[in-house]
Write a structure and sequence with these properties.
By secondary structure, the protein is α+β, with helices and mostly antiparallel strands. The protein has one domain. The protein has helices spanning 3-36, 80-93, 163-166, 227-231, 255-263, 311-314, 352-356, 362-366, 375-378, and strands spanning 114-118, 121-125, 184-185, 188-189, 195-197, 222-225, 251-252, 308-309. It is globular and about 70 Å long. It starts with a helix and ends in a 10-residue tail after the last helix. The structure holds heme C (HEC) (6 copies).
Length: 388
C-alpha cells in the first residue's frame, strides 16, 4: 500500500465517521419528535417512570402501598405480573371473561378447566395447559404448570414465569418491548427480537377505548421473521425442523403450500378462495420480511414468495382456550362437531365458547364438517376425505 493510498483511506474513514455522527444526531432528533408527541404514552422511550412500578419505601401519604405479601424488587404490586396487569388487565391481557382478543391471547384461559365425557370416559382440558402460567397473584394467577413446572420444554429456561420473562420491563425498541439482542434471563438466551408490527395493546373487545385492536382477519399483528427463533430462546430444541420429529418453524412455505393457503376457504370449499382475501388470523404466517417497512397489519393477502410457517401459525404466545396454547382445538378431527370448550362442558361460563374463537363460531364461519385447521396449509381434507 502506498503512502498516498493510506492517506486517502484515512480521509475516507474520517468522513464516514462524521456522516455516522450526523446520522445518529438526526435519528435522536426524529425519535425525540416522535416520542415527544405521544404525551400519554407510559413506556415512553422504553423506560417508564420508575415509581409507576416501584415504590422506594412502600409508603405514600402515610399508607402502605403494597398491602399484602412482599413484592420483590421494591415493586408496587405483590409480584411482577401484577405490576403489569394493574394497567394491562383491562387492556385485554387478562380479562374477567375471556374478552381479550389479542394476538398473544388472554391469560384468563389459565383459570378455566373444561371437562366432558367422550366415548364413556372423562376428558379434560386443564387451565394450566392453556398457555404460559405467569404468576400475578392480584389477578388470580397463582399456579405454575402442574405437568411442566417452571421449565421450558426443549430448553434451559427454568423459573416462575411473569410478563418480564418475555417483555423487558424497562423497555427497549423491540417489537412489543420483547427481550432480545443477546439478553439472558434464568437460562433463556434471546436472539434478536422478531421483526413484526402490532395493531396495539387494547385487545379487550368490551373496552371503551377508541383505539381498540382486537385481532381479526383484517387487523392483526403483521409478522415478518424471527419469531420462532425468538421462542427458541427458551424452547431451544423446538426449532430444529424436519428430521428431528419437530414441525418445521421459521421455514419457507414452498409454492404448493402458498397455493394451498391462498385458495383454501374451508373443508367444504378447499380450493375456491381468493389470494387477496386469504389471510386467516387463526392460522397466520410470517411474510419473511427482515425489516418492518412493508409489513401491514391490515393486509388480507395470503402468503407470497418467502412466506414461512412459524410457531404462531399454531400457538398463541400468551394463552388460548385450548390445550398447548393452540390457536384451535388440536385434539379432534372435526372442529364443527367437537372443539372444547363446547356448550354443556363442565367449567364453561358466560361467553367462553364464542370467545374461544375470538367471537366466531366454527360452524357459522366454516360450515359443518370443518376439519382441523392444519388443512389451511396441507389440504388433506380435499374431497372430504376421511383423513385430516
Ligand atoms: C413497567 C413497570 C416498571 C417500570 C416503569 C420500572 N421497572 Fe424496574 N422492574 C420492574 C419489574 C417487573 C422488575 C422485576 C423483573 C424481574 O422479575 O426480574 C424490575 C426490576 C428492577 C430492578 C432489579 C432487577 C434488574 O433488572 O436490575 C431494578 C434495579 C429496577 N427495576 C430499577 C428500575 C428503575 C431505576 C426504573 C426507572 C428508570 C424502573 N425500574 C422502572 C418493572 C418496572
Ligand atoms: C401505568 C400503566 C402501565 C403499566 C403498569 C404497564 N404498562 Fe405497558 N403500556 C401502558 C400504556 C399506556 C401503553 C401504550 C403506550 C406506550 O407504549 O407507552 C403500554 C404498552 C405496552 C406494550 C406495547 C403494546 C403496544 O401498544 O404496542 C407492552 C408489550 C407492554 N406495555 C407491556 C408491559 C409490561 C410487560 C408491563 C410490566 C412490566 C407493563 N406494560 C406495565 C401502560 C402500562
Ligand atoms: C422466557 C422463556 C419462554 C419463552 C420466551 C417462551 N416460552 Fe413457552 N414455555 C416456557 C415455560 C417455562 C413453559 C412451561 C411452563 C408453562 O407452560 O407454564 C412453556 C410452555 C409452553 C407451551 C406449553 C403450554 C402448556 O401448558 O402445555 C407452549 C405451547 C409454548 N410454551 C409455546 C411458546 C411459544 C410459541 C413461544 C414464542 C412465542 C414461547 N413458548 C416462548 C417458557 C418460555
Ligand atoms: C412467553 C412469553 C410472554 C409472556 C410470559 C408474556 N408475553 Fe406478552 N407477548 C409475547 C409475544 C411473543 C407477543 C406477540 C404476540 C403476537 O404478535 O402474536 C406478546 C404480545 C403482548 C401484547 C400486545 C397485545 C396482545 O395482547 O397481543 C401486550 C400488551 C403484552 N404482550 C403484554 C404482556 C403482559 C402484560 C404480560 C404479563 C401479564 C405478558 N405480555 C406476558 C410474549 C409474552
Ligand atoms: C404446525 C403446528 C405447530 C407449529 C408450527 C409449532 N407447534 Fe408446538 N405444538 C403443536 C401441537 C399440535 C402440540 C401438541 C403436542 C404435539 O402434537 O406434539 C404442540 C406442543 C407444543 C409444546 C408443549 C410440549 C409439551 O411437552 O407439552 C410446546 C412447548 C410447543 N409446542 C412449542 C412450540 C414452539 C416453540 C414452536 C416454534 C419453534 C412450535 N411449538 C411450533 C403444534 C405446532
Ligand atoms: C402455515 C402453514 C402450515 C400449517 C398451519 C401447518 N403446516 Fe405442517 N408443514 C408446513 C410446511 C411449510 C412444511 C414443510 C414442507 C417442506 O418444506 O417439506 C410442513 C411439514 C409438515 C409435516 C412433514 C414433516 C416432515 O418431517 O416431513 C407434517 C407431518 C406436518 N407438516 C403436519 C402438520 C400438522 C399436523 C399441522 C396442524 C397441527 C400442520 N402441519 C400445520 C406448513 C404448515
Amino acid at each position: 500500500m502506498t503512502g498516498e493510498d493510506d492517506k486517502n483511506r484515512k480521509e475516507e474513514e474520517k468522513e464516514m465517521k462524521l456522516i455516522k455522527l450526523v446520522l445518529v444526531i438526526m435519528a435522536v432528533a426524529v425519535m425525540t419528535l416522535v416520542l415527544g408527541g405521544n404525551a400519554l404514552a407510559f413506556h415512553e422511550e422504553g423506560v417508564a417512570y420508575c415509581a409507576g412500578c416501584h415504590t422506594m419505601h412502600n409508603s405514600q401519604d402515610g399508607q402502605a402501598i403494597v398491602e399484602s405479601g412482599q413484592g420483590g424488587y421494591l415493586l408496587r404490586q405483590v409480584d411482577g405480573g401484577s405490576t403489569c396487569l394493574r394497567c394491562h388487565a383491562e387492556y385485554g391481557q387478562r380479562t374477567q371473561t375471556g374478552s381479550g382478543y389479542g394476538g398473544g391471547g388472554d391469560f384468563y384461559w389459565l383459570t378455566k378447566t373444561f371437562t366432558w365425557s367422550a366415548h364413556g370416559h372423562e376428558a379434560e382440558s386443564t387451565g394450566d395447559s392453556h398457555g404460559h402460567n405467569i404468576i400475578a397473584a392480584d389477578f388470580g394467577l397463582v399456579k405454575t404448570d402442574g405437568k411442566l413446572g417452571t421449565k421450558a420444554p426443549g430448553g434451559d429456561y427454568n423459573h416462575e414465569l411473569s410478563c418480564a420473562s418475555c417483555h423487558d420491563p424497562h423497555g427497549n425498541e423491540n417489537y412489543l418491548l420483547l427481550r432480545g439482542n443477546g439478553d439472558t434471563f434464568h437460562g433463556a438466551d434471546f436472539p434478536d427480537a422478531p421483526i413484526a408490527v402490532s395493531p396495539g395493546r387494547v385487545t379487550n373487545y368490551l373496552s371503551t377505548s377508541n383505539s381498540k385492536a382486537p385481532v381479526s382477519d383484517t387487523l392483526h399483528p403483521a409478522y415478518g421473521s424471527g419469531m420462532s427463533a425468538w421462542c427458541a430462546g427458551c424452547h431451544t430444541d423446538f426449532i430444529n425442523g424436519i428430521g428431528s420429529r419437530m414441525h418445521p418453524a421459521d421455514v419457507e412455505m414452498n409454492s404448493t403450500y402458498q397455493t394451498n393457503y391462498n385458495y383454501y376457504v374451508s373443508s367444504s370449499n378447499p380450493q375456491g378462495g381468493n389470494p387477496n382475501a386469504a389471510y386467516l388470523e387463526m392460522v397466520p404466517f410470517q411474510t419473511g420480511d427482515t425489516t418492518t417497512d412493508s409489513l401491514d397489519t391490515k393486509s388480507t393477502a395470503g402468503p407470497g414468495a418467502g412466506a414461512q410457517v412459524f410457531c404462531l401459525s399454531c400457538h398463541r404466545a400468551h394463552a388460548s382456550a385450548f390445550p398447548d396454547a393452540g390457536r384451535w382445538f388440536f385434539e379432534s378431527e372435526n372442529l364443527s362437531e367437537e372443539s372444547h370448550p363446547m356448550a354443556g362442558d363442565g367449567g364453561v361460563t358466560g361467553d367462553d365458547v364464542i370467545n374461544s374463537y375470538y367471537g366466531q363460531s366454527i360452524t357459522s364461519r366454516f360450515g359443518e364438517n370443518q376439519r382441523s385447521l392444519c388443512n389451511k396449509c396441507h389440504l388433506k381434507d380435499l374431497q372430504g376425505g376421511a383423513h385430516g
